[in-house]
Design brief:
3-stranded antiparallel β-sheet; 378 residues; 2 domains; Creatine Amidinohydrolase, Chain A, domain 1; alpha+beta
Amino acid sequence: MKPLVLIPSGESDADFAYASGFPVETGLYIRFGDGDDVLVASPLEIDRARVQSKAARKLGFAEAGFVDHGEFASWPRLAARMLREKGLEEARVSPRLQAAYLEELRSTGVAVDIDHELFKAERRHKSAEEASFIRAAQRAAEAAVTEVVRQLAQAEIKDGLLWLGGRPLTSERLYARAQLLLGEMGFSCPDMIVAGSPECAMPHFRGDGPIRANAPVIIDIFPAGRTSHYHGDLTRTVVVGDVPDEIKRMHASTLQALDAGIESIRAGIPGRDVHAAVCQVLVDRGYGTTTKGFEGPEGGPKMNHSTGHGVGLDVHEAPSLRGPSEEALMEGDVVTVEPGLYLLGLGGVRIEDTGMVTANGFENFTTLTRSLDPKDYL
C-alpha cells in the first residue's frame, strides 16, 4: 500500500487525530508502512506530541530538517523530502487535505492519490475504549440538556416570553449555562442548538434572542471530550407553559418514530431501512417527509433530514441512516436516531438518542427522559 501523508486541516481534523493520536492545528504525519510512522510537530507542540502521539517517531523541527517555505509550502516540501529519503515517489492523502497543500505536494513530483475510503471502516467499528469515550460525552450532553431545561423550568411567563432573574431568558443565556457546565466536565460544544419557536422549524438554527412561552424549544447538544475528542449527540424538545395540541401530536408521532427506528436497528440492516421505518410512522400519523415515497400530505409538518448518522471523532460520520443509503449497519457502529417534524411559522420537534449497533439490536447510550414537560427533567 502507498505511504500515507497527512497534513491537518485544523485541530478538528479527525483523520489526522485518528492516525497520529494527536489532534493539532498544524503538523505532518507520514505512515511509510506498518509500524513505521512519524509525526513532525512545531517547537510549540513537540513536547506535548511526545507524550500524546502514538506515532513510532516524534520529531521536532530541527530533527526533521524543517525549512520555512511559507504557509502552504513548508509541510508538503518536507513530506516530499522525507518520502524520497526512503526512495518513495508516491503517496496517499486524506480527502480532508486542503487544496493548497495538495497542489504543492504534487508540484514536488510526488504522485498523489486521494484515498476517499481512508479510515472509513476502521473508524466505524468503535473499540471498547472508543465506546467509553462516546458514553462519557453522552453523559455530558445529558447533564447540559438537563441544565438548560432546569433554567427553562424556573422561568416565569410575561407577555408571552420567558423571564428569569428579572430579565428575559434568551438562547444566549441558556447556551452560556450549558457551555459552562460542559467545560467543568471536560467537554465543549461551541455550535450547540438552543432554539425557540418559531425559528426552531429550521433544524440547524442555533438559537437567538428571547425564548417564547407556550411553544417548543429544541435543545441539541453534541459535546466533544477535550482529551478524548470523541462526541456524544443528544436532542430534546420541551415546552414551558401551555402545549399546543399540534405540538403534542408532533411530539407523540416523533417519539413513536424514534422507537420504531431504534427497534429496526441491528447489524446487517441497511441504513435506508431504518430511515424508512421512521418515515413510515410519520406518514401513518398524518405527517410527511422529503424522502421519495414518504412525502405525505402537503402543507403540514414534515421531516426534512435523514434519520441519523455515525458519531465518533466527527459528530457526523459514517454510516448514514437515510433514504438512498444501501450501506448496511455493522456491529460496532455508533449512530444517532433523530426523527423530527417542522413547520415554518409554528416551530419544530426533534428527539435524538445515540447508541451502538449490535448483532441483535441497539445498545442505547442515552438515558434522559424524552418528555415535553420541563419538570420531568428535574
